[in-house]
Design a protein that fits this description.
The protein is an alpha/beta fold. The protein is about 20% helix and about 40% strand. Strands 1, 2, 3, 6, 7 and 8 form a six-stranded mixed sheet that branches. The protein has a two-stranded antiparallel ribbon with strand order 4-5. The longest helix is centred in the C-terminal third of the chain and has 15 residues. The chain has three helices and eight strands; from the N terminus they run βββαββαβαββ.
């Protein structure tokens, strides 16, 4: 699993010119699944995301988690995180999980994440337009 985490002031995702997910202060997650990933890594990844101290405290030091600030999460599936660009100029996606398996893992990831925090999502497999007001900018990449 690979997750691009962006600290945001706001973020939204549109499908067919309709907003399907929108948050204010929090995190935007772009999440991709490797073909060999399975459900066993989800809880560890979620724990890391919700406890990652990347929000400023009163001394302007990144010392608070999304739980500490009462933020929200916008979770968006993105199989292109597993693009292979080693050969030629057209990326290959053979390392990405198949759509049928990835949608199940993505839905379970979001279900488990919702136990701790408000989560908005895009629509898996759709052509999405993402608007991100990155705060900082702060961008972290996690890979499990």
């Amino acid at each position: 699993m690979k997750v691009v985490i962006q600290r945001v002031l706001s973020s939204s995702v549109e499908v067919n010119h309709k907003t399907v997910g929108k948050i204010n202060r929090g995190l935007t997650l772009l999440i991709g699944f490797h073909r060999n990933d399975d459900i066993t890594k989800l809880d560890q990844l979620i724990h890391k995301i919700i406890h990652l101290r990347i929000f400023d405290d009163s001394n302007h030091v990144m010392n608070q988690s999304i739980l500490d600030i009462g933020g929200q999460i916008l979770s968006v599936s993105q199989f292109t995180l597993y693009a292979d660009t080693k050969k030629g100029n057209r990326p290959g996606y053979s390392n990405a999980m198949s759509k049928d398996k990835a949608i199940q893992l993505y839905n379970e990831f979001n279900r488990r994440l919702r136990k701790y925090i408000e989560v908005q999502t895009g629509i898996f497999g759709s052509d999405m337009k993402l608007k991100i007001e990155n705060d900082g900018p702060v961008t972290i990449i996690l890979e499990e």
